[in-house]
Amino acid sequence: MTKSVMSSKNDCFNKYTVLIALLTVGGALSVLVLSIVPPLVFNASSILVPGLIPYMIANAVLCILLCVWLYITGITIRVALHSALTIVSAFAILILSVIPPLVLSNGVTANSGFISHICAYGFLCILSCAWFHLAGISRYPVLSSVLVCTAYGVVIECVQFVIPYRTFELKDIVVNCASVFACAIVAKFIIQCVLFCKCMNSALRLRIESPEL
C-alpha cells in the first residue's frame, strides 16, 4: 500500500514537473518567435507586441514558472529564485536586443542606448554572481560571471549585425564590458561582506555555546 502511494505521488510529481517545464520552454519560444518573425518577415514597424509593459509581464511569468520548475526538482528556493532571475534576465536582454527599437512617449528608446546597456548588463552581472555563488557552480563566481556576461554581450551584438533594423556597434560592447566589470567589483565586495558576516556569526555562536573556549 505504501509503495503504491509513493509511486502515485512520484507519478504526479513527474507530471507537474514536465508540465511546468513545457509551459516555461513553450512560453519562452513563443515570446522569441512572436518578437522576431513579424519584423523580419514584413517590416520593422510590424511588431506584434507594442510597448515595453507586455515584455515585462511575459518575462515575469516566465521567471515564476522557471522558479517553480527548479524548486520542485529539488533545488532550494533561494537558489531556484536566483537561477530563474538570472536566466530570465538574460532572455529579456536577448528579446529586447532583437526586436525593433521601442520608442517611449517621451521620445526615449527603451531598448537601446547607453543607459539601457549599463542597466541591463550590470543587473545581469550581479544576478549571475549571486547565482554562481549560491549554487556553487564555480569556485570563482565573480570571474565566471564576468566571462559569461562579457561573452553574452559580444554574442548579442553579433546577432544584431545580421538583423536589418538593428546595428552592430563596438562602443556598445565596450559599454557592456565596462558595466560588467564595474558591477563585478560591487558583487565581489558584497560577497566578501556576506562571507565575513557568516564567519563572525559562526564564531560568536561557537563562543556562546562553548564559553570555556
Search tags:
213 residues; mainly alpha; globular
Q: State the separation between the terminal residues, measured CA to CA.
A: 53 Å
- Order of secondary-structure elements: HHHHHH
Count of beta strands? 0
Beta content comes to under 5%
Work out the radius of gyration.
21 Å
Task: Give the overall form.
Answer: globular
Q: What's the tally of helices? A: 6
Q: Unreliable runs, pLDDT <50, ≥5 residues?
A: none
Quaternary form: single chain
Structural class based on helices, strands and sheet pairing: mainly alpha
Instruction: Please describe the biggest sheet, giving its number of strands, its sense, and whether it closes into a barrel.
Output: none
Overview of the molecule:
This protein is an all-alpha fold and 213 residues long. It has two domains: 1-98, no CATH class; 113-213, no CATH class. 77% of the residues lie in helices and 0% in strands. It contains six helices and no strands. α2 packs antiparallel against α3 (77-98). The mean pLDDT is 78.
